Amino acid sequence: MILIGERINSSRFTISQAIENRNFALIEKEATSQANAGADYIDVNAGTFYRDEGEKLAWLVRTVQAVTDKPLCIDTADSNALLCGLKEHRGRALVNSVTVQKERLEAFLPILKRYDCRVVGMCLNDFGVPETVEGRVKLATSLIDILRTEGIAPQDIFIDPVVHALSTDQKAAWATLETAKAIQERHPEVLTICGVSNVSFGLPGRRKLNQVFLALAINAGIGAAILDPTDSEMISALKSAQVLLGKDDFCIDYISQFRK
Fold it and tell me: Is the per-residue pLDDT at 260 higher than 90?
């Protein structure tokens, strides 16, 4: 399971303030704690700064990479902001929020190829996220075909079935899991990914819901997760699910987590 640390996101008030005030110490602490907790990538998102997202994103990239060698997951819907972030990034980045929306895709593709990025592709087009599993799988297939045609290797493609909140759609989790299963069956060469905490938005007891959803996602074949790696209960749920599903040889990861 590839883990992407979600905490450096400007939708969080403390992070937004830290970005606005150039609070190096807070951002560096968030980056270090997630890296030390086992994150494979550190997500950076400055999307709430509509006027100067690119400049803010570039600062985040520099600040985070000053204290960790972990590659970053650059999350933006704006191609100019993406370019600003990638110009500052050392090594090979993972780019989130690539969609089948015509204008965004046309703007992103040259940048992704130029910087040899790994890609998180979302089941989203100009009409939104399809309601049916079949519709999402069709979008995923279309995006995979486009990316492969552009020279992006299948092992560098992560497909996000898109997790909606249960508070607005009681079948949101089911739809995501079934889509992930179908994508893995048809395209075993790519990875599936999800933002775990999205499922519980607007509901009480979010942490427990997130933990159970993560276990179900692992069972559905999802190979990467955007989550809080510093949440020890979440990581314990992950290790427990992996050992129960036979994905932890000799229970080594489970025992290691238990000792922690």
Answer: no
Residue 140: name the closest of 125, 159, 112, 157 by CA. Answer: 159
Q: Residue 6 phi/psi, 5° resolution? A: -95, 0
Residue with tokens 């999350």: 75
Closest to 125 measured CA to CA, from 111, 140, 112, 144? 140
Alpha helix ranges (H) inside 66-119: 79-88, 102-114
The token duo for 256 is 């290691």
C-alpha to C-alpha distance for 228 and 112, rounded to whole angstroms: 26
How far is it, in rounded angstroms, from Cα 10 to Cα 211? 23
**Has this prediction a pTM greater than 0.85?**
yes
Cβ contacts of 147 within 8 Å, gap of 6 or more: 98, 119, 121, 157
- pLDDT at 14 exceeding the cut of 90: yes
Q: Is 161 exposed, middle or buried (0-12, 13-18, 19+ CB in 10 A)?
A: buried
